[in-house]
Amino acid sequence: MSKMKYIAFGLFLEALVMAASHAQNPQPQTQPMTQVAVVHPWPEMKAAPPTPIAEKKVELGQDTWDPSWDLMVETVLPQDLLTTMPARDVKDFCPRFNSMSEGDKRSFWAYFFQALAGAEAGLEPTKDVRHSEPEVAVKDTVTGRPVRSQGLLQLTYMDAERYGCDFDWDQDKQLDEHDPDKTILQPKNNLACGVKILENQLIAQHKPLLAKSSYWSTLRPGWPGYRVFVKQMTNVPAACGLKSARAASRTNVERAATEAGNSSSGEN
Q1: CA distance 163 to 166
Q2: pLDDT attached to residue 263
Q3: Per residue in 238-262, pLDDT tens?
């Protein structure tokens, strides 16, 4: 998948929003209206930029993050994640989150889940892993089998009970282990479930984004995979101001070093 596909998808999103706006705001009718319709504005959405691993896969000619998955994330985001509540948790990755438009916030979260999928599953939607570590090698209460982490966000069938995710074990158990038709492996279901898990962690439980108690081990500082996730968060949407913040930080350090050097020269 080339970068042109990301650009094309961005244009597609703009066209989709314009079409929805036109449909919701038709031309005045010559006939008198007998009913008043309540118009709900189409939410602003923007395509997220590719993560480093997505760009690398493009260079290698491998399957990578599908830009349509951005839309799958953005359309299911709860309003709580678009308010100022998560700002403190994401400030290291998105310093301007508080002041960003809702569309830019949606784009940030789409990027976040792309980065998380990169760290968790290498952006492979049919990734299926059985862990041997004692803390995670437990019995799945839904399948009755040793738990397996599956899909883009490495989720389990137990999450269907915990978070109300759209996974159907009775249907999936008839299919091959890596069959993309399995409900748990379908990106739409997997990503939507991830959004619910994140909302539960940040909003319902008031836990920080990066914590040892996070659902995903890649969000636990010091755990294997954490550095991979952090590396994937280096190309966030420009609206986040991350590069500007880093540039300002470097400028301040350089200025301080220069002033310290001048002061030292003056003393001599």
Answers
A1: 9
A2: 44
A3: 999 987 655 554 444 445 445 544 5
* Backbone phi and psi for residue 129, each to the nearest 5 degrees, phi listed first: -130, 135
72 SS3 class: helix
Average pLDDT over every residue of 137-151: 91
Say how many CA atoms lie within 13 Å of 240 toward its Cβ: 25
- The rounded distance, in Å, linking the Cα atoms of 12 and 172 is 33
- State yes or no: pLDDT of 105 exceeds 90: yes
The answer to whether the beta carbons of residues 150 and 127 sit under 8 Å apart is yes
Strand, helix or coil for residue 150: strand
Residue 155 identity (one-letter amino acid)? L
> What's the token pair of residue 45?
């959405």
Of the CA atoms within 13 Å of residue 91, those in its CB half-sphere come to 7
Identify the pLDDT of residue 176. 94
Please name the residues in contact with 210: beta carbons below 8 A apart, sequence gap of 6 or more: 89, 219, 220, 221
Q: Tokens in use for 121?
A: 């599953």
